[in-house]
Backbone:
């Protein structure tokens, strides 16, 4: 069978899922807000909408590559690449921009507003920070976290455990200083 091009629809007779416009609409409806929030937390409101749209555009173009049942981890992984490319372009990324009104129901927003938490997170490596934020903010663990990181489940569990240990150490150091 020749390789499929981006424009070819999924073949319903092949036994593979049909990733058509209705499928994409469902993906956007179910996961669009999560992708948007991913970028709000990392790049601010000003950039989040465009970056989320970029991720969804990639999802549409590469819809045949999006695994059924693991759409969100695939979107988060793609979001990480989109964000890295965005930052490489040299555009300023506003990390100090916070909403005027803090939503008391959103612990992620409260954590970002807390200077101590930001200071401790800044002490971690970018990889540890990414792993912890994917777990804490995006709610990923297990297979989903492994999918986003592009590693095995065991590797993801170990990476999360090590990142948590380094977070505890950084927090203890902050308290002592």
Residues:
């Amino acid at each position: 069978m020749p390789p499929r091009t981006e424009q070819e629809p999924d073949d319903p007779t092949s036994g593979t899922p049909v990733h058509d416009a209705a499928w994409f609409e469902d993906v956007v409806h179910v996961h669009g807000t999560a992708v948007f929030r991913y970028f709000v937390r990392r790049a601010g409101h000003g950039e989040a909408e465009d970056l989320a749209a970029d991720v969804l555009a990639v999802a549409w173009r590469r819809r045949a590559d999006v695994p059924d049942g693991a759409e969100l981890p695939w979107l988060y992984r793609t979001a990480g690449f989109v964000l890295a490319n965005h930052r490489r372009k040299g555009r300023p990324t506003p990390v100090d921009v916070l909403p005027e009104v803090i939503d008391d129901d959103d612990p992620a927003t409260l954590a970002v507003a807390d200077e101590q938490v930001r200071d401790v997170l800044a002490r971690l490596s970018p990889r540890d920070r990414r792993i912890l934020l994917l777990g804490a903010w995006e709610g990923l663990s297990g297979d989903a976290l492994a999918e986003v990181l592009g590693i095995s489940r065991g590797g993801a569990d170990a990476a999360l455990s090590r990142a948590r240990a380094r977070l505890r150490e950084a927090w203890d150091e902050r308290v002592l200083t």
